[in-house]
Amino acid sequence: MPDHAPLLQVERLSKRFPVAGRRGALLHAVDDVSLHIAPGESLGLVGESGCGKSTLVRLLARLMDASEGRILFNGEDLAALPARQFARTPQRGAIQMVFQDPTDSLNPRYTARDTIAEPCRLLSGVDARTANERVDEVAAQVGLPPELLQRFPHQLSGGQKARVGIARALAPRPRLLILDEPTAALDVSVQAVVLQLLDRLRRDLGLSTLFVSHDLNVVRLLTERVAVMYLGRIVETGPSSSVFDHPAHPYTQALVSAIPGLGPRIRLEGEVQSPIDPPPQVCRFASRCTAVHDRCRREAPTLHADGLAIHQAACHVARWPARFPVQAAAGLPA
Q1: Per-residue model confidence as pLDDT tens digits over 150-192
Q2: What is the DSSP letter of 301?
Q3: Which of the four pLDDT bands, split at 50, 70 and 90, describes residue 305?
Q4: Could you say which of 3.40.50.1820, 3.40.50.300, 3.30.870.10, 3.40.50.150 is the CATH number of the domain covering 8-223?
Q5: What are the CA-CA distances from residue 256 to residues 55, 61, 202, 219, 267 (Å)?
Q6: Distance, CA of 192 to CA of 135 (rounded, Å)
Q7: Which H/E stretch holds residue 33?
Q8: 304-309, long-range: CB within 8 Å, 24+ apart, which pairs?
């Protein structure tokens, strides 16, 4: 990981939504999340569907406003500005997003050239000639042939549309690229090519990336650190090699066990706790955890680190590898 001050520093970020038909009830989609991304670093974000990943990335991309917390980007608190106001600031072009489905995210009335040029004109303030030059530049970077730039989305293959979406995100020359399941809608034969392209672009351009994916093998290969999310909260974070080889939180252990070839599958039992007004004093994973302890039902755990302070887990009974000093709570099993 590059040895720099964080490019992105998220502090106690939360997003709550009112529940229709239940006066005063709130759905805690993102709850007290803190994380950071260094310049040039790739952070993976994993977790089950419904855990809050998509809401979190939309908060970071400033597509919606947070309920609480700070989003410090290069030292400036972006959360202090409403999303509509942020869209008119120079920082808008510095954070770009590659969406999950390239077909749905492209305007069917725009050619590939128009799609890529639009953020240049709107976010970089360049003239038409400079915008076209930049289109040619990023099209070459993503491997998009010049003859395809005049085509509309319905005239492009899935892989070609994915490259247009990546080129559009690169056109304003961002410093942080948010990748929200960028290959989920693509054929398996195309996924590997696009993933290799994204990894090469990150390294060549020195980009920071937040990579959101259900494919744990991909996250392991393409990221330097990973954060595991469960019911709106980060429950484990650390270097990708450490988290995948030595998962400390019982939830992460179950996720990793689902990777083919990594041993017996851990099947979670019990009901998922409701995200609507969850009790603050209870661990959110307690209802499904095989290692649950009395303390888990009366004191919600917070992130604490291993002996090297690089791997963190929010669990009273986190199992650290033997090479790390055990830091289990007093009186609880390690």
Answers
A1: 999 999 999 999 999 999 999 999 999 999 988 887 888 888 8
A2: -
A3: confident
A4: 3.40.50.300
A5: 23, 28, 26, 11, 11
A6: 24
A7: strand 26-37
A8: 306/238, 306/248
